[in-house]
Each structure stands twice: as C-alpha cells, then as structure tokens.
C-alpha cells in the first residue's frame, strides 16, 4: 500500500512537472522568437537605428524608409532570418526581392544606357524599385531609348512614369529677378510704389522707432537677425548678375561666415547681393560644383558678419537650424524659397539622378513632392531644426505640383568643410528699433521681403515697416509709419501695390 502511494505521488509529481513545463515553454519561446515592441521614432532617431541595422545586415540590406504616420522604421531585408533580427531591434521588417547593391547597379545601367535629357530616376525603398520619370520632352527616339533600357531591366527592378512638366533648374533670370524677387529698395522699403506709402511707409521713416530706411529695406545686411552685421537667412532672395536664387543655409568655414546655395547659382555669378540693383553686397563664391553635384559656398564679404542660423518661414517668424540631417524616404520636410515662400511635403526617393539637358546631369539628389519654381534654386529644405537639402530643380510648379530635387546638405558640408550655423545674430525686431528691426523679412527684396513684421521693431511702429512687403506679397503690407494709424501707409488694409495679387511675382513671369 505504501508502495502504491509512493507510486501515485511520483505520478502526480510527474504530471505537475509536465504541466509546469507546458506553462513555461511558451514564455521561453517568446523571449527568443517574438519581436520587440515597435519603436516610435523621430526621423533623426530612425536614421540612427537604420544606420546600425545596415551595418549589421551588410550586403543583405535593401534600403529603408520612415512610416511617418506612426513613426515606425521599415527596414527592407532579403530573408526571414534577417527579418527576425530587425524585429528584435524594434523596427518593421519587410522581405523584398532587390538588394540595395542590385538597385544601385540598375541605376548605373540607366546612367550608361539611357542618359536622356528630360529624365530622372531615384531608388524608392517603399516599392523596392528604381522609379524613372520622363518629362513631356521625352518622345520619339528618346523615349524608345529609355524603353529599351528599362525593358531589359525587368518589371521587378524598375517602374517608368510620365511627368506633364519639364525638368529644369530653378534659378530665375532677368524676368524672375524683377518680378518674383521684388528687388531693390522699391521692394524692401516699399518705396513710392508700395500702396502710395512713399519713403515713410516702407522704411517707416526716421520717426518710426528710429528704423529709418534700414527697417523697410532690411538695413545693411538684409533680414537675418540682429548682431553686428545682420544678414539674410534661409529662403532669402539673393541676386547675382542676371540671376536670382535663394539662400540655403548660413554656415561657418574655419570660423568665417558663409552660406550655401545651389551650384548652378554659383556658376551664374561670382558675386551675390541682397538686392537686384547690387547696392547691398553679400558675398563672393569660393566654391561651386555643378553639374554632377549642385552646391555652392559663398563667403560673406564682411568677415565680421554674424548671420542667424535660421530659415524664413515667410510669415514673420523663423525656424532655427542647429544641425544637418540625412534625408529619409517618408521624412516630412519643408522648403523655403524667395519665389514661392514656404511649402511642405515628403521625401519620395534617394540617390536620384536628373538630366536637365545640355549635359547638365546631377547625381545623388533627394527627390520630393514639394513644389518649387524658378528663383527658388538654392533655397533651404529642412525638417524641424535640421538642414536637409538645397533646392536644385524639378518639373511643374506650385499650382500643378510635380517632382523636385535637392542637393543633400550633408554632402555639401563634407565637401566644403563648412559647419551649420554662423554665430550669434538675434531675432531682430523688439526694442532695438531700426538696428535690428529689419530681421523679419527676406532681406532687401526677396519674396516676402522687407522688414517682415519688424519695421521699427516695437519702438513705435507696431507692425510697421514693409509688413510682408516686397513684390512677392507686395505693397505696403501692414505698413505705415504709425503704430495704430497706418499713417503714410495709404493701404494698410488695402494692399496697395498688390499684397494679395503679387503682380509680376508669379511663377509664369519667371518661366
């Protein structure tokens, strides 16, 4: 009997052990097989994680993108084993067909065999394909060449789309300078033409907080902020010879102040000013690369200049820029330019090549759906406080949309040895009246130029100065030499020369 009891006890203990194992085994498996919780990441954090995963995957990496709707990093991989390691790091794994090595090889095939003017292509990690765009000029023999090459690459590697526009650089010529740039003292200071304000309206006069002509006309340095020598900021209009472009980002090179813009702008002119007439010199080109890449470094003529490291948001406020960042497909970005102001959109492709014609082929660009027009070239593309790209060109406009391409800022910084930021420079305006009051706009004559909402600062002019004046949103804006009374503004509510109707400033005048 005791023996039977002992046997029963042993059997009962065995059943208990099996039951315990049944409970423990799923948990043990979960610790090794189940993915970590998906991480919600900023674009910067996603880039850091993707860089780490790319190093781990090596040749098995197939690109990545940011699912910006929920902040998840999506990593393309070639096998389920690689997918497990990606999931363990908190990213989404997507098993795809084409490796990044294969996609880059396909892009080289296009460069070698289908370098047709009016075409562009980029690697799209969302579709795991090369996306080719042919503009409206690609017809006949040119289209036949493109089709033959892409057909030989196979459907699994490449997709071909058509654009209704025409690929072009976005620097403005003579017509663009006069129209969209709103240049000269007549634009920044509103002058006699801005709603009949006369010199007193745009410049707020000597009586309007002491701003004098410097307030509406963006002073000696334009609209970049206070400091000893205020200068323009990202998105400000710049003029060189017969061309008008936009400033990208203020930088320093071995402590000296400079700014980045597009390389094709740097090729247009060696010297650049803040006004079309050339009375407000800014700097001299020290390095310019176009084609192949598209960036230029312009050194400020005033070695003591302290331009603000910021971008004009075209509404009287600015975005501080503290660093540069690599672009990521899916990244939400904004672009500031002197023709069309502020636009936003999403990065859609990387390592893009665009053929503008006449041998002007640029590689390694960022492709987006952000609109732009002539005169916006060189302007700042940014994501929050990070510099991302310099406007190069594209197709379409801000009415019909289209594709746009940007030079990566990180590549330009590396090539020139420049660093983001150019010293102090306050926000301008405030109680400093005319000295810092010019900080609000784009400098003398760009886009929403003039004194922004600065004018004479808070020293008696209220929203005085040129308002959002300049030919972009021309007219006296909220101008007037008096704080509550528009005084000589002759149209603080009535835009005068065309605050709502930009007159000649539109994109058509620049085309």
TrEMBL record:
Residues 491-511 have a biased composition (Low complexity). Residues 451-490 have a biased composition (Gly residues). InterPro entries: Pept_S1_alpha_lytic, Pept_S1A_streptogrisin, Peptidase_S1_PA, Peptidase_S1_PA_chymotrypsin. The keyword Chloroplast does not apply. Keywords: Disulfide bond, Hydrolase, Protease, Serine protease, Signal, Zymogen. Belongs to the peptidase S1 family. This is S1 family peptidase. It comes from Streptomyces nigrescens. The lineage of its organism: Bacteria, Bacillati, Actinomycetota, Actinomycetes, Kitasatosporales.
């Amino acid at each position: 009997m005791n023996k039977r009891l002992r046997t029963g006890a042993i059997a009962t203990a065995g059943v208990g052990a099996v039951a315990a194992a049944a409970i423990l085994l799923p948990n043990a498996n979960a610790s090794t097989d189940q993915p970590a919780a998906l991480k919600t990441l900023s674009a910067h954090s996603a880039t850091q994680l993707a860089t780490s995963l790319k190093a781990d995957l090596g040749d098995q990496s197939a690109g990545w993108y940011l699912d910006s709707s929920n902040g998840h990093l999506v990593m393309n991989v070639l096998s389920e084993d690689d997918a497990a390691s990606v999931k363990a790091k908190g990213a989404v794994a997507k098993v795809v067909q084409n490796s990044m090595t294969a996609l880059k090889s396909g892009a080289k095939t296009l460069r070698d065999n289908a370098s047709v003017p009016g075409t562009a292509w980029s690697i799209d990690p969302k579709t795991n394909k090369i996306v080719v765009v042919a503009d409206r000029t690609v017809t006949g023999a040119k289209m036949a060449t493109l089709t033959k090459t892409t057909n030989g690459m196979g459907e699994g590697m490449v997709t071909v789309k058509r654009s209704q526009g025409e690929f072009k650089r976005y620097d403005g010529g003579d017509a663009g300078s006069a129209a969209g740039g709103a240049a000269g003292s007549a634009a920044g200071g509103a002058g006699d033409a801005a709603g009949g304000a006369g010199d007193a309206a745009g410049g707020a006069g000597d009586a309007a907080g002491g701003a004098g002509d410097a307030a509406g006309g963006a002073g000696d340095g334009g609209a970049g902020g206070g400091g000893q020598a205020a200068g323009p900021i990202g998105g400000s209009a710049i003029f060189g010879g017969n061309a008008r472009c936009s400033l990208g980002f203020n930088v320093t090179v071995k402590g000296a102040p400079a700014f980045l813009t597009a390389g094709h702008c740097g090729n247009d002119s060696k010297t650049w000013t803040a006004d079309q007439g050339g009375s407000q010199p800014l700097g001299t080109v020290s390095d310019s690369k176009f084609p192949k890449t598209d960036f230029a470094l312009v050194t400020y003529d005033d070695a003591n200049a302290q331009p603000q490291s910021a971008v004009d948001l075209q509404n009287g406020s600015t975005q501080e820029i503290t660093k540069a960042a690599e672009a990521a497909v899916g990244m939400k970005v904004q672009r500031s330019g002197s023709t069309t102001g502020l636009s936003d959109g999403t990065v859609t492709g990387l390592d893009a090549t665009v053929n503008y014609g006449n041998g002007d082929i640029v590689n390694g660009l960022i492709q987006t759906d952000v609109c732009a027009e002539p005169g916006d070239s060189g302007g700042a593309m940014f994501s929050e406080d990070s510099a991302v790209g310099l406007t190069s060109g594209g197709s379409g406009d801000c009415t019909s949309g289209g594709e746009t391409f940007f030079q990566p800022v990180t590549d330009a910084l590396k090539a020139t040895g420049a660093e983001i930021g150019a010293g102090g420079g306050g926000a301008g305006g405030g109680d400093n009246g005319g000295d810092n009051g010019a900080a609000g706009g784009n400098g003398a004559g760009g886009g929403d130029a003039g004194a922004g909402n600065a004018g004479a600062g808070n020293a008696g002019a209220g929203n005085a100065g040129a308002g959002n004046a300049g030919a972009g949103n021309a007219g006296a804006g909220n101008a007037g030499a008096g704080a509550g009374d528009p005084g000589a503004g002759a149209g603080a509510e009535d835009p005068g020369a065309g605050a709502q109707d930009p007159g000649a400033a539109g994109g058509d005048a620049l085309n």
